[in-house]
Amino acid sequence: xxxxxxxxxxxxxxxxxxxxxxANDCLFTDRSQIAFMGYTVRTHTHRFTQWAAWxxxxxxxxxxxxxxxxxxxxxYSHVGDDGSDFDRYENKNCNASEPNVAAAxxxxxxxxxxxxxxxxxxxxxxxx
Length: 128
Hints:
Shape: globular
Number of helices: 1
Largest sheet: 5 strands, antiparallel
Helix content: 10-25%
Order of helices and strands: EEEEEH
Low-confidence stretches: 118-128
């Protein structure tokens, strides 16, 4: 079967809230102590990631503010990506310049997480 999207999840445990992008690994951290969870959906044309606060009691993401400062959502275009140049893509966050794509992928991502990814809608066609 052809996959229309791929999903991934990343945990982050920043040691310094002022610089959450640095020293943020969660190795040997109990999952109840994780600070943030990033969820990503990748289609053939884009990669969208949304960072959310992690509720260590319920072991679920909090899909509202506060999100990770200045890194709340990331959208990267892979239009034209044939896989031959790893560094050519993901250099510019297109979240603000492609709001319709971000909105569609946000819906797909939330459906996938809510449904355990198996039943997420895959009928979205994203064309730049």
